[in-house]
Amino acid sequence: MPEIYQIDDTGESLLPRGVMETNLPGLKMIARGKVRDIYDLDDRILLVTSDRISAYDSILGNPIPDKGVVLTQLSLFWFDRLAGILPHHFISEDLSELGLSRAVEEILKGRSMIVKKAEILPIECVVRGYLVGSGWREYQDRGTVCGLQLRADYKQAEKLDEPIFTPATKAENGHDENISFEGMIDRIGLENATQARDAALNLYNTAAEHALKQGIIIADTKFEFGFVDGELTLADEALTPDSSRFWAVENYETGRNPVSFDKQYVRDWLDNESGWNHEPPAPSLPPEVVNQTRAKYVEAYERITGQTFIR
User: In whole angstroms, what is the distance from residue 208 CA to residue 212 CA?
Assistant: First the structure.
């Protein structure tokens, strides 16, 4: 069974290996996602990014240590760097006002954000810059990606002539479903859809340019947007190994699926070695897979930010 981290005022009940779940005294939890525990602070939200890792819509049986810290700190890097394109929801990492013990604050340090409340759009805003994954499989069958017609003769993992916007509906359970831009308009209106699409493409292009200079190709990514005081705002996480597909420039070539810094490594182990049939409950990962996955997440952070990961 996965470890459950009941955090009390002394912190004594915390277990030493990655944070799977939190239950913070005196704070109201309003949701537990695949990765994040979300607490209501009245006019704001506390997001705690756990070390949970999911695949095929299931949370795996053990954590990836420091994963939540990597995701949070990389998001903060991008929030700051991309703020000129779109405002973000981040307010502070300072948890001192919440009345938690020092031991609890230490566990939450680096993996927690106090953020603005936003009216979240019910759409995953996906941008694809390279032809890979499900997009490649659809292209082979029909010459399209999420219904968008592409030119002939692309190779696997080839850079697209221009990045494409491929929205999807958010699923509470199960897989998100790709929809057309027209379907997105039907759900949220022309003005909101156009604004979200243009913001996603601008964010991706700017981030991809920076990452390339750091030796990372951002093959695709997904954004979550919401409205704060009537203004479109970047929410949740941004351009992390959980929400993006990262490749090393030095290993990239068309015609094959490049080695990645995201959780594709975990999916490959699940598909090729675990014997799992993708039905719950999900298995636990062996130590070597845990260690290698952590190393990939940390390397992505260090390459993109140019900073040494310290934990």
Answer: 6
* Residues 6+ away with beta carbon under 8 Å from 213: none
Q: Is the pLDDT of residue 246 over 50?
A: yes
Reduce the DSSP state of residue 263 to 3 states and report it: coil
DSSP 262: S
Check: CB of residue 269 under 8 Å from CB of residue 289: yes
Q: Which two tokens stand for residue 210?
A: 């920076």
Distance CA 118, CA 227 (A): 5
Q: In one letter, which amino acid is 162?
A: E
Q: Delimit the domains of the chain by residue range.
A: 5-118, 120-265+288-305
5-118 and 120-265+288-305 share one CATH topology? no
CATH code given to domain 5-118: 3.30.200.20
Q: What is the DSSP letter of 273?
A: I
For residue 33, what are the contacts with CB-CB under 8 A and spacing of at least 6? none
| Coil, helix or strand at residue 265 | helix
What three-state secondary structure class fits 80? helix
Q: Say which CATH class 120-265+288-305 falls into.
A: alpha beta
Dist. CA 30–CA 129, nearest whole Å: 35
The continuous run of DSSP H or E covering 79 comes out as helix 67-81
- Match 């200079």 to its residue by tokens: 213
pLDDT in tens, 196-213: 999 999 999 999 999 999
In whole angstroms, how large is the CA radius of gyration of the chain?
19
* Sheet strands (E) in 99-213: 112-116, 119-120, 123-130, 144-145, 148-149, 159-165, 168-169, 177-178
Residue 2 has pLDDT above 50, yes or no: no
Decide: 260 and 245 in contact? Cβ < 8 Å.
yes
